[in-house]
Predict the structure.
Amino acid sequence: MTNKKSFYITTPLYYANDELHIGHAFSTLAADIAARYNRSCDNKVHFLTGSDEHGQKVEQAAKAKGLTPLAHTDALVEKFKSLWETLDITYDDFIRTTEERHTKVVKYALSKLYEKGDIYEAEYKGWYCTPCERFWTEKEVPEKLCPDCKRSVQEITEKNYFFKMSVYQNKLIEHINNNPGFIRPENRKNEVLGFLKQPLGDLCISRPKSRLSWGIDLPFDENYVTYVWFDALTNYISAIGYPFDLDKFNQTWPASCHIIGKDILTTHAVYWSTMLLALDLPLPECIFAHGWWVTGEGKMSKSVGNVINPRQLVADYGLDPFRFYLFREMVFGQDATYTKENFIMRYNADLANDYGNLCNRMLPLLIKNRDGVFNKTDANLPETKEIIKLAAEVKEGYVKAMDNFLFHEGLAKIWSLVQRLNKYVDETAPWKLAKEQNFALLDEVFYTIGEGIRFCTVLVEPFMPHMAPEFLKQIGCDGKNYSIASLEWGQLTDKSKCTEPKPLFPRLETERIQNLKKSKAEPVVKPVEPQTEIEGIITFDDFMKTQLCVAKILTAEKVENADKLLKLTVDTGDATNTLVAGIASYYKPEEIIGMQVLMVKNLKPAKIRGILSHGMILAAETPEGGLALMTPNKPAKTGVRVK
Ligand code: ME8
């Protein structure tokens, strides 16, 4: 064993109460991509995932099935593991919170904090949300509805045990301010700092067995079990040897990154951090809270019935396109919407056209004219020199992005090279060089393209671990010989002989097109009409008359006696406008407050249901027949003109 600290990456421990969907798959894939990337950079990696098996949710789910909690979680854990196998997740360890190696550490941590005086007993009165297993204060629930899940809360008075979270509040604020990369992305850090502006209450870490028996017994009071979050969060240290195998622990802790979704930011950034401070342990280097995958109906959830099954997507499109799509489409940190059309568009544009075609266009020519061999030559063409320079820049930018968990940026860097290579093919027209028998130049062009493909493929391997070796094989390389750590331009040698290409990403056709074909209807793709014949064509000056701007929704409420209307006030930079929008069937007021939307600012005011409406926000129909508000795909300056 070397003394080099591991790159230690974790996923949330998913609740073993139900099956997993693409949201869960996404967090685990993010950790897998970070793990594979780090391995390819020659870093020692430890990748942990697992299952959160205690608490009310699990107990209730088991009861509903007529199973004991453990029989229920045993079965679900098998399903979790089988999904990770389908997605080829390279985890090093899978921890279950019901395992003894975990429960004994939770008890150790509780005893330590109890002895230290950081856990105390008190009478507690509060508002309890059963589905969320969380207490709220009177002030937090003015309407007696849980602020998280909007279900009703019950008032409960009982004796409980509390962790003195408040003692560590200032230390935590200081840590966040001194470590800018600790909570990412930046807006989530600000959210946590905002939360910490209020005095932090103490955390109730026990549940009376009379109400819940499925949990870890408190070591100092057998009438209570441990609050499920105190239990589950401890997994990040129990799995790596704390406190019984300190050698292993010290080589692994602190975590390089806890990947989580934004729904569990407070529990990680505040509960977990203060627990660690109380245990005198260093804090993780980074907590990255990514956004949600949503469909037209909002966040995916079983009760809404809008969950996307990752297995189905893998079965329909293959594993690598699925992995690629999730990270190309979502700006890591923000929300993203899944639609089938969008998936197919991405696949066709980026994989079938840009990436796949590079090989398909080149390799048959290489086989025909140069016997499939890449002859290494000097770079003479200015375009070749440009590509070599770009490749170095792409690698640098990619590494920087990946080191910061900005997966979408890593992919965007690779695709800038893929696209430049396609342009290079058009510029150099190797089929013409072949006809002219200009073999010196032809070799240079082939070598540049081959090397470019290899470069992109080595970098894309963490995202597409199956297709990447296939691509390398096609250009005559053994994938095992390459890593990101050693990647340099010029490693492709004339020993590399390419093989007959087979299209690795055949184009997908959208369902609409397939259906049309089946019914032998009109030609599927209509030729593009010359622009002047498009109906209602306007000039640039006409368009500029419309003042489109980015507006931020400040308030939203239902318009009385009008089911479809919401009354909004929006910040347009220089003013606050009131407007009425027909979106109430698709969005709840609380979902859109704070959202940036695109708005027509200079529309003549009109009275709608007695309200003077100044402006109009933009929306479009979704494939499922819903409605999607048009929003900037990254935070924009409120009030700026859209051009
Ligand atoms: O919260 N989009 O478990 P959980 C993106 N047991 N990610 C999503 C998502 C979506 N629509 N839905 C879920 C728990 N996720 C606790 C964690 S950790 C010590 C204990 C992902 O099964 C995302 O990472 O509810 C989110 O934080 C996590 O699944 C919640 O999983």
